[in-house]
């Protein structure tokens, strides 16, 4: 059960980093333009 919780936390962290990278890419593109 603890492995499942750890996996869920890892997936959430991965999605958060992915979202931040996407947000950073869009904002940097907006600044470039």
Indicate the topology.
Blueprint: H1 2-32
General description of the model:
This protein has 33 residues and is mostly helical. Helix content is 94%, strand content 0%. The protein has one helix at residues 2-32.
Count up the helices: 1
Runs with pLDDT <50, length 5+? none
Gross morphology: rod-shaped
C-alpha termini separation? 48 Å
DSSP summary, beta strand count: 0
String of helices and strands: H
Give the DSSP E fraction (strand runs of 2 or more residues).
under 5%
Largest sheet, described in full? none
Keywords: Membrane, Transmembrane, Transmembrane helix
Transmembrane segments: 6-25
Short summary of the structure?
The chain has about 35 residues and is mainly alpha-helical.
Which short descriptors sum up this protein?
transmembrane helix, membrane, 33 residues, 1 helix, transmembrane, mainly alpha, single chain
């Amino acid at each position: 059960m603890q492995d499942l919780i750890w996996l869920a936390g890892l997936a959430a962290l991965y999605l958060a980093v992915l979202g931040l990278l996407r947000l950073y890419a869009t904002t940097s593109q907006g600044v470039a333009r």
